Amino acid sequence: MQIKWKLNKWEELSHKEIYEIFKLRSKVFVVEQECVYLDLDGKDEEAKHVLGKNKKQVVAYARIIKEKEKVYIGRIVVERENRGKKIGEKLVKKSIKYIEETNNEKEIMISAQEHLDYFYTKLGFKKTGKKYLEDGIPHQEMKY
């Protein structure tokens, strides 16, 4: 499988890409994880969007949001059929690389589902100690 990676501002995304992003996020977070939450939180227009595309379909996605002295990588998602192929690892690494190239003075933060602790730890993230329940799923704050 050949994944092509893109990084775009909101206004640079095509209508089809926006649709594919929301479709993937809903497919995984709402349907697969059975989590009812408001995905359209008003932050997408200010974010940078990292897309992994196989042919023309978005199969991996993350968004990058700046807030004061920190940068957050969020909505990190890989389509179920494409997990276990190191795509998630590449997605997070590409997000980190972009942030380091453009915002190297800022801390990189994620809100990680606790069951993915090992995945993020091996990519260089460390727990901050802040744990919480978000939409019924245990999460923890992690810093890179």
How are the secondary structure elements laid out?
Blueprint: E1 3-9, H1 15-32, E2 48-54, E3 57-67, E4 70-78, H2 87-102, E5 107-113, H3 117-122, E6 126-134, E7 137-143
Parallel strand pairs: 4-5
Antiparallel strand pairs: 1-2, 2-3, 3-4, 5-7, 6-7
Could you characterize the architecture of this molecule?
This protein is an alpha+beta fold and 144 residues long. It has a single domain (3-143), classed as 3-Layer(aba) Sandwich (Aminopeptidase). It is built from three helices and seven strands. It has helices spanning 15-32, 87-102, 117-122, and strands spanning 3-9, 48-54, 57-67, 70-78, 107-113, 126-134, 137-143. Strands 1-2-3-4-5-7-6 form a seven-stranded mixed sheet, with helices on both faces. The termini are far apart. The mean pLDDT is 93.
Name the CATH homologous superfamily. Gcn5-related N-acetyltransferase (GNAT)
Neighbour order of strands in the largest sheet: 1-2-3-4-5-7-6
Could you tell me how far the N terminus lies from the C terminus, measured between alpha carbons in angstroms? 29 Å
Total beta-strand segments: 7
Structure class:
alpha+beta
| Beta-strand content | 35-45%
Shape: globular
Radius of gyration: 14 Å
CATH class call: Alpha Beta
By CATH, the architecture is named 3-Layer(aba) Sandwich
Largest sheet: 7 strands, mixed
Helix and strand sequence? EHEEEHEHEE
CATH topology: Aminopeptidase
